[in-house]
Amino acid sequence: MFKRILCILLIIPICLMLLPLQAAAAEREFGSITGEDVRLRSEPGTKSEVLAQLPLGTEVEVLGEKSGWFRVLYGETVGYVRQDLIFFSPKGSRAAYVLGDGAKLRGGPSQASYVVAELGGGQGVKVKQLIGDWYFVVAGDNVGYVHRSFLLLSRATNTSSSLLKIGMEGQEVKRMQAKLSERGFLAKVDVTGTFGAKTRDAVSEFQKACGFEKDGQAGAQTLGALYDTNNKISKANATAAQVKGSVILLDWFKGGETWLHKGARFTIIDVKTGLAFNARRFGGWYHADSEPITAYDTAIFKKIKGGKWSWDRRAIWISYRGKVVAGSMNGMPHLSGPTKSNNFPGHFCVHLLNSKVHETSRACPRHQAAVQAAYRAGR
Questions:
Q1: Domains, the chain, with CATH or none
Q2: I need a labelling partner for 49 at 20 to 30 A (CA). Which of 165, 301, 308, 348 fits?
């Protein structure tokens, strides 16, 4: 009897020692590699040493996370893998976003399976499981499978309704780009529906102007501010950014004089500074004799000229009646100007392609050089 009691007393401490080890074993967490030949690195950064290449589907033990990277155990090697390249979901789901319009949510993990729904670029989904090349996801009220090539995994476990970031494309991206262009953060020519480096930089600049964290990704907070009609945040050279990409050459004697007719009120955008002011043509026949419309316009004009009037030619864009035309102007008030309240004592000259000066009835080489410079800068 005594021997039995002694054995039990000896066994109990051993069992108690083993319990933490069993608990630790039960808490081990594993993830699967979601890309082709993913690099296992010595440190959390793309410039660190590559320790191994991990094929698609490789299982690794997740030891921790740091700065957007998972610390993992692969065989006997410990290294780091970017979080978006491992499917690891200790909380039951992983956030992901659709890369482009038209991604198919299917009833099964196969291209031959029926289509449950079509997803839009930037739409948020919850990934529940990885099956080969397919993710089993929850998308709104629907569930189904999406091929891994159409989704971008996030670090988060919960999604916002949408997130637009570099690499995505579609109508939501184009809508966002159009609003960025309207506010002057993106050139009109870059409203393409594809989220590239220029769009990322524009989003970052807008976020900075809003006082948000500047990450170049348009989530709910950024998009909410961008689409808020009461939000007046814009760049000082917004008008210049909006017209760039749509500038044309227009011959003065082949439609230019008719387009910029006497009495026309138009906007002049200085190519170098991006500053803009309103002007009016009141005369001239070989080119447009013009004046700033108000004293406020004159102040902007003088700022463009560095605070001092001169005859120097400047490359400009002229926006009027749906056209943006390459032009040139001098900056010296001369002769007469019909409006006395605009603080501009005279008028200035606006030239288009092949326009001439009144004194010689010939084209001015300096004006024409500025016209061509404006056209090159605005294409």
A1: 27-87 (2.30.30.40), 94-153 (2.30.30.40), 171-235 (1.10.101.10), 243-378 (no CATH)
A2: 165
